[in-house]
Task: inverse folding
């Protein structure tokens, strides 16, 4: 009797992760998801594994009539008529970090965050896309 084996390559594994885990984004050292997306307050949560990157750039965007009024921690910049906020976080430690957004009204459009960082060894630039 002949035996057959199936090998799943890394590309197929990534596709399977995207299909079966749409609410959580994974990329090496950082994973992210939205803990809350209802009402005027949105919470983006990031889990950072060791060794942590030296810095993280986060670009949070909303669409529709909703605008970003503020956030904790405060962003370095709110642009695009209040629809995009940007953070540069430095001296990152492993663990869980949250960004709490205050919106002008309950979310009317879509929501998406891009989390960019360079791997701890400094060789690879990563980008995690988080969407509800």
Result:
């Amino acid at each position: 009797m002949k035996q057959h084996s199936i090998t799943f390559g890394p590309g197929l594994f990534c596709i399977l992760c995207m299909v079966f885990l749409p609410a959580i984004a994974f990329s090496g050292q950082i994973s992210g998801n939205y803990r809350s997306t209802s009402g005027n307050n949105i919470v983006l949560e990031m889990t950072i594994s060791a060794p942590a990157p030296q810095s993280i750039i986060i670009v949070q965007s909303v669409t529709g009539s909703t605008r970003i009024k503020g956030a904790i921690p405060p962003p370095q910049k709110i642009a695009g008529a209040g629809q995009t906020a940007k953070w540069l976080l430095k001296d990152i430690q492993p663990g869980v970090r949250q960004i709490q957004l205050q919106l002008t009204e309950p979310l009317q459009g879509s929501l998406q965050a891009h989390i960019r960082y360079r791997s701890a060894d400094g060789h690879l630039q990563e980008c995690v896309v988080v969407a509800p």
